[in-house]
Batch of 2 targets.
Target 1
Amino acid sequence: MPKETFYNLDKEKREKIERVALSEFANFGFHGAKVNRVVDKSGISKGSFYQYFTGMDDLFVHIVENLGKKKISFIGSELKLLGEKDFFEKFESMFLSGVKFYYSLSEDEITISKMLPIIKNLCSEKLEVMKKEANQIFFEHLIDEAISTGEIQADRDFAFVVISNTSKQIIQYLRRKNKVMGIEKVFENESNVKEAISLFLDLLKMGLTKKEGKNE
Amino acid sequence: MPKETFYNLDKEKREKIERVALSEFANFGFHGAKVNRVVDKSGISKGSFYQYFTGMDDLFVHIVENLGKKKISFIGSELKLLGEKDFFEKFESMFLSGVKFYYSLSEDEITISKMLPIIKNLCSEKLEVMKKEANQIFFEHLIDEAISTGEIQADRDFAFVVISNTSKQIIQYLRRKNKVMGIEKVFENESNVKEAISLFLDLLKMGLTKKEGKNE
DNA sequence: TTCTAATATGACCGTACAGTCATATGACCA
DNA sequence: TGGTCATATGACTGTACGGTCATATTAGAA
């Protein structure tokens, strides 16, 4: 983690460094990112850099942790409100917050997110944990619950795969719509987002609940 | 592309270099891959390296092109047989060859595949083309056809997103089954694979064909 | 054998890099 | 004012890298 000195910096300078680092890792990858470039672009001296971080690994972990915190603040706030809802309502909420989180990310942050699962030779237990998307564990729990109450009737692994990919698919769908419509920010219209979500939710409902009258 | 000298090498030596390069790029990424390491690990001199390739970019393009050819030989052979089949049968075939292709890949090759879409600052028109998965264009064509014949009734973009993600999901599902069952090679049992495919195919059928008796 | 062309080699060069450290700067207090 | 502590700086060092090139090796042809 960054040294105390880094957190003593004024917000502007700190965020500048973080912005530059984000771009550096996104553009050149974990093993291609260079201290020299970060130092030049963020206008600090190399000596200072090593007073903030022990090295690039340290900086990378910090960047990824920021990303993780951002995600938790999006998803976490939604989770508290799930208590009374039924299974599909719960997922509707989670998809919505998932989409909102995604659209809150910059291109560089998206790149880092995609990069994470394929980084090798990175010895940081913290990141190992982070690589496994936290909400997956939560998904599995919800699915098991829904199976036991009979809310869904489907193979557990099938349900997990289909559900855990839905957020990404909704986002892909919205991006395509954006391109086709020539509008860059369809997602900002929440009703469009909700419409897209219901499209995929219907698919889930059909696929995960056995229809009556169909025996095999 | 590699120089003639490289292709004059005997197969064993050539494949050794390719194997080392694959591992190098998979482990350290495009910008982190080093000539020195490749040279050491594959037991050739640096001078020779530069008689085979103009540099690491060149080598990378070669590796990715190999991967592309491998894919085409898997998918392409299937495409010729699609003529008479209906829409969902066509996709059944494509999913099957997709899964077979995936399981023919080494871990390193899988890593490179995942890496491709997020590599920046790579000035190679060839790769730009390759980054867009070739079969996507083919998917779109098939979908348009199926919509016009009435075989599917669904939003075009919705159909595309759902279908184009199905291969990945089938693979994810099979991998989960592998883990749960403790058997590493469930996929080699083709009937397991076909069963998984039909699971997802049913979902597609439900989602992309409007049920009778449901009006809105 | 000798000649020729293709290929192999690693020492070598200039550059870019990570990381250090003596020094400078500034801020706060006595 | 002078003293002290936290921070800033960039010149410096050793290393690793990309890329070159004169030389060595090999294979085949004459």
Target 2
Amino acid sequence: MTTTAPYHHGNLRAELLAAAERALRDRGADALSLRALARELAVSHAAPAKHFADRQALLDALAIEGFARLTHAFQVIVERADEPVRERIRALVAGYLAFAQENPALLALMFAHKGEPDASVEVIAAGRQAMAMTVGLVAEGQAAGEIAAGDPHRIATVAFATVHGIATLGAGGLLEGEPTAVIAEHALVLLWDGIAVGR
Amino acid sequence: MTTTAPYHHGNLRAELLAAAERALRDRGADALSLRALARELAVSHAAPAKHFADRQALLDALAIEGFARLTHAFQVIVERADEPVRERIRALVAGYLAFAQENPALLALMFAHKGEPDASVEVIAAGRQAMAMTVGLVAEGQAAGEIAAGDPHRIATVAFATVHGIATLGAGGLLEGEPTAVIAEHALVLLWDGIAVGR
DNA sequence: ACCATATGTTGTCAACGTCTACTTCACGAT
DNA sequence: ATCGTGAAGTAGACGTTGACAACATATGGT
């Protein structure tokens, strides 16, 4: 009755991704090894190559998956048409910051095209898609008379960059322990009211 | 007259850092190998270990050096007491974005404490020092009546995060090619005036 | 003159990514 | 029914790397 292990795993690709994300969370991207993943899944060291051309391809897949999750979460929030725009913006910010805090290594991976000349086009596309979710909300806010006129894409970009900056600084320990959510709330107030005197 | 190579290199540490920064710029942090650096400097493969305990120590040193350069550049700008605050802020932003554009891989390294649990304390300290340079300028702006009241540290943090976010998104190719300087100028205007309607 | 120490060298090891050749297996055409 | 073809997994090898240990050489203080 010994159930012999089948020659084919059957679900390797998905399980590799899952194990990789765990490893990423626990030990960071640098410590992620294809061979270790293969061992963990009781599969030969060369098996992962059948699903991911090389190590970078696996990391790219993780990044894309991360962006996809983010995009979906954003969409759900944006579509709450009954909520005021500012409330939804707040929810977007909170969602992003929570994601960043729970997945710091993954977040770094998603935006880590640093020096590599040939950054994956697909990863970048996935990232742009996630960012694009916020543009419509800004436009909606303008239509509702809550947000001043101006290219909504530009406004959304600046806002996203601000939150993203807060998230990465927080992950890097440069915010002296202050919660990113608190900083972000200040940012929202500053951006909403402006910081100039008088006017 | 053959000048025999001396047993001791004499300046290995500094040259390692220089070569490492070149390699970082050209091929990215992942492709940086201690052995390759040793080869480049015509030194044995174990020589770098005498100056940097491990690979990460070298990368940390690079990051600290990067922050030091940034801090110095910031200080020079902040100390131009004759220039109006807003002009100096503009210069700070331009300086940071230029640094980011010229050293994308180094910038990534400087803030890349991602998943690694034991991020170098010294790197973080160097980063905080750089960020701290901007606080005084905000306070000065408040004293001059150009910037509204509020914790200057908080305002500076939000502003820095915004610019940092723009820089990293730009480096990641997520700004659809628009120059980071243009986005940052919009950000400054938005932050200065606020985006709320009416008020 | 001497020696402690910093700096470099050589040799070794385990781990890793990647490549090639081979095996197993599911499945559709015949 | 069977055949063969391609996808999925295995086994082994190669070259590179980071790290370590043992040894060699230079340097500077006493």
